[in-house]
Amino acid sequence: MGVIKLGNYPIGNGQPPFIIAEMSGNHNQSLEKALEIVEAAAEAGAHALKLQTYTADLMTLDLDYGDFFINDSGSLWKGQSLYRLYEQAHTPWEWHKPIYERCRQLGIIPFSTPFHPKAVDFLEELDTPFYKIASFENNDLPLVRHAARTGKPLIISTGMATLAELEELVTAAREAGCKELVLLKCTSTYPASPVDSNLLTIPHMRELFQCEVGLSDHTLGIGAAVASTVLGASVIEKHFTISRAEGGVDAAFSLEPAELKLLVSETLTASQAMGSVHYGLSEKEKSSLKFRRSLYISRDVESGDALSEDNVRIIRPGYGLSPKYLNQLIGKKVTRAIKAGTPVGWDLLLETV
């Protein structure tokens, strides 16, 4: 796999994870709130802020019965029609430009998830640097191909997709012109349980499809996301809000600013801690050698006295011989009087017993 860049950020190949703050509908239909979310995400250290680009009419039918009404008692959105939910959650298209501008002013990359080819065309006008395909659209191969034809990197969530579907998806994207592909392991429940996250899929998916792999995480907190870093996740996406208490369609499983900041710092730490396979003394450990245990004279001895467990001990610091030599030293006679606290060295001993 070659080096992939998202904006100016190289990902993978030992780089820290690329952190995406997903605004979704947490702006609660307020442009002012949306811009506050941008500012909070930038301050927390996120690399990118993601929007969702659709209209209710491009998503579904304006019906409030049957398949178009949410009756699932376990859903955060029970009691709403799909159309009304998307009306409530969508980001008005006229907001995209000021949101993009604020992101760029603050040094955070703006991009979006298009849910229809018309959304891709609109986002192209804003010079969107790369695109995200959502899990629920990963079976919409015409949309995937349309986004891939832009020639820009694609990030695709893999929630619910079987291996056969993923093979079709990846093939469609690559045949349509996608050269830089990132797949995100995703569990499409809201919120998701860590038990269902199956993060061990990440290295398997990376090997199988020979592309960068990350995590689109809907669990609460940051534990799963930090763990994914150790398994090679090069991109991490989390929903983001200024305050869960303010509500919003995705607020219940969104990070707040302090949590996002912690995610950025802890995934960086996890990435740095991976290092490489290494045993033995590191350069920075050399100064700590003195704190290891070694052999010391523990009681004053006279010239010709034999060493014994009464006058030699294994203690700190580490300036004497290694403890492994204790049995060889017991019974040996010393060449001179030695005070307690002297590190044991071979030069203290007579050549014969």
Keywords:
8-stranded parallel sheet, TIM Barrel, elongated, 11 helices, 12 strands, 2 domains, alpha/beta, two-stranded antiparallel sheet, 353 residues, Type Iii Antifreeze Protein Isoform Hplc 12, 31% helix
What does this protein look like?
Helices cover 31% and strands 16% of the residues. It is built from 11 helices and 12 strands. Strand 6 (131-133), helix 6 and strand 7 form a beta-alpha-beta unit. Helix 1 packs parallel to helix 4, helix 6 packs parallel to helix 7 (163-175) and helix 9 packs parallel to helix 10 (257-274). The protein is elongated. The termini are far apart. The relative contact order is 0.12. The model has no long low-confidence stretch (mean pLDDT 94).
Could you give the topology of this structure?
Elements: E1 4-6, E2 9-11, E3 18-22, H1 31-44, E4 48-53, H2 56-59, H3 82-89, H4 93-106, E5 109-114, H5 117-125, E6 131-133, H6 141-148, E7 154-157, H7 163-175, E8 181-186, H8 201-209, E9 212-217, H9 223-230, E10 235-239, H10 257-274, E11 294-297, E12 312-315, H11 326-329
Parallel strand pairs: 3-4, 3-10, 4-5, 6-7, 7-8, 8-9, 9-10
Antiparallel strand pairs: 1-2, 11-12
Radius of gyration: 30 Å
Low-confidence blocks of residues: none
CATH topology assignment of the largest domain: TIM Barrel
Strand content: 15-25%
Tell me what the CATH architecture of the largest domain is.
Alpha-Beta Barrel
* Helix content class: 25-40%
Level-1 CATH class name of the largest domain: Alpha Beta
The strand count comes to 12
SS class = alpha/beta
What global shape is seen?
elongated
Major sheet details: 8 strands, parallel
**Relevant CATH superfamily of the largest domain:** Aldolase class I
Order of helices and strands: EEEHEHHHEHEHEHEHEHEHEEH
Sheet with most strands: strand arrangement? 5-4-3-10-9-8-7-6
Total number of distinct structural domains:
2
Pfam families: NeuB, SAF
Domain AFP-like: 294-352
Protein name: Pseudaminic acid synthase
GO molecular function, one term: N-acylneuraminate-9-phosphate synthase activity
